[in-house]
Amino acid sequence: MSSSTGDHLSVNDNIIINLPPQTPIIFSSGSNNDEIRKKRMISNRESARRSRMRKQKHLEDVKNQVTKYKMVNQQLMNRLRLVNHNGHIVEQQNKMLRFESAMLRERLCHLQRLLARPEFQCTLLSSAWPCNNIVTL
Fold first, then answer.
1. How much is the pLDDT for 7?
2. Coil, helix or strand at residue 133
3. Are strands 25-28 and 10-11 parallel, antiparallel or unpaired?
């Protein structure tokens, strides 16, 4: 028949088709076309099977990541609960220590006022503490 100068030729009932990235496939009339069609169908089925397998693998990987992230999240939540619990305990202890500190300050002020009275100063200086009653000869 006729021929053309391009990549797609029609010569003697044979058709050449370039399919990137594979090598050109030659289609001819008759039983050869059926054979090529079957090969292409098998190739397409195999390609689809590989694609489904890649998709399944990706899905499994994503599910594994989700499971891992859920476990890490649960661990972090447990740690947060523990830190919050310990924080509440420390707050209660601080509250009790502040109260105790205020009571002790009040008591110290009261004792200092008592000691500042003149009637207690003479007694304290002479006999309140045995070490103050040293007799020299």
1. 46
2. coil
3. unpaired
Q: What is the pLDDT of residues 42-98, one digit of tens each?
A: 999 999 999 999 999 999 999 999 999 999 999 999 999 999 999 999 999 999 999
d(CA 42, CA 8): 24
Nearest CA among 22, 49, 50 for reference residue 36: 22
Instruction: For residue 11, report the phi and psi dihedrals to the nearest 5 degrees.
Output: -130, 125
How many structural domains does the chain have?
1
Q: CB-based contacts of 11: which residues, under 8 Å, 6+ apart? A: 1, 3
Range of the domain at 77: 10-87
What is the full DSSP assignment across 31-47? HHHHHHHHHHHHHHHHH
In a domain? residue 81:
yes
Q: DSSP letters along 74-86, please?
A: HHHHHHHHHHHHH
How many angstroms separate the CA atoms of 99 and 87, rounded? 18
What does the alpha-carbon distance between residue 81 and residue 73 come to, in Å, rounded to a whole number?
Answer: 12
Q: CA–CA separation, 136 vs 124, rounded Å?
A: 19
**In this structure, what token pair is assigned to residue 12?**
């003697």
